[in-house]
Design a protein that fits this description.
Number of domains: 1
InterPro entries: Cell_cycle_FtsW-rel_CS, FtsW/RodA, RodA/MrdB
Strand order of the largest sheet: 1-4
Pfam family, one: FTSW_RODA_SPOVE
Radius of gyration: 22 Å
GO molecular function, one term: lipid-linked peptidoglycan transporter activity
Largest sheet: 2 strands, antiparallel
Membrane topology: Multi-pass membrane protein
Distance between the termini: 5 Å
Protein name: Rod shape-determining protein RodA
Length: 391
Amino acid sequence: MTSQRKQIPKIDYGIILTLMLMMIASLIIIYSAQTTGQYKQNFVLQQIMWYTIGSVAAAFVIQFDSEQMRKISWYLYGIGLVMLIILFLSPENIDFTRKVNGAQSWFFIPKVGAIQPSEFMKVFTILALARIATDHHVKFIHKTTKTDFWLLVKLGIATAVPVAFILKQPDLGTSLVFLAIFLGMVLVSGITWKLLVPIFTGVSLFGGTVLYIAIKMPQYLKFLGVKQYQFKRIYSWLDPYTYQSNEGFQLVKSLLAIGSGMTSGKGFGNREVYMPESHSDFIFSTLGEEFGFIGGSIVISLFFLLIYQITRVGLDTKNPFYSYICVGVISMIAFHVFQNIGMTIGLLPITGIPLPFISYGGSSLLSNMLAIGIIMSIRYHYKKYMFSSND
């Protein structure tokens, strides 16, 4: 009997194919969405440009191995934090950091466009949290409740610092993505449930209490330091038709668009419901109206496939640092998909975060492509062999 050792190809062509299908879906839906009279730009060409730049960036990131990523993780985290601090300190009246829709979240660069630092900070934070968890387990081989608590504190601080600046912009939706990344990391970091259960229970009870007071007894919100107007999105989510002239307008239109699409949709370009931001945050509403339940299911299936592919990479590698990165990227993408689609169908409040790889947006698409580049780097650099035997 002879044994032949075959090395698995380093490039994960399955992920590349999935991204190509997402790109095609994105361009088709954006092309239809930009025909609305609200828009003057050619978002399709810009999306192609950002996909091209993102692909180049991903190809560049693939060259970095585990040790190199570990070394630059804190530098990238620091760069991202500096950008957030600059935004925080910049005056609102200058064009470079002007407010858009009440949020000061972008740098406006001539001939380039708007760059949103918080989008890139999500990827940088994933690398930092992966490094923290890995270094902690190397240092503390014997786990105790004290060492687990210390790990939880370090992960919490590294997440809370950028979130504090992002909330000041204000951008609640992006802040929730950081929370999802943090929770994903914590759940796989090996921290004992003796710590996690009481902490998560306490936080959940507090959040539930605040939400109950906001809905049933809003006059008491002032005792919690919260203003009633901050819950308008919650109110419009629970009863959108009462608030359809203001905060509930987009949700009502989204429900009407998706509902009218029914099973197979009205067909490409045959939209009848006017939907603001139909090329970005509410692109799933356009998809639902034109391609119906079938079209929406296909796009959701692509996300399930991508998450499965990333999960497979994380399970195959024996490098803990790589595994933590995979968990962080999965948490980021999964939350984006769940929140974005959830808000368009009334399942969740509107928070204004895009649908990954589908919605128009340079910073969002580029940061997601960087994350995929890191995943492909993991696949590219670890060595695994398949064994086959011939009699």
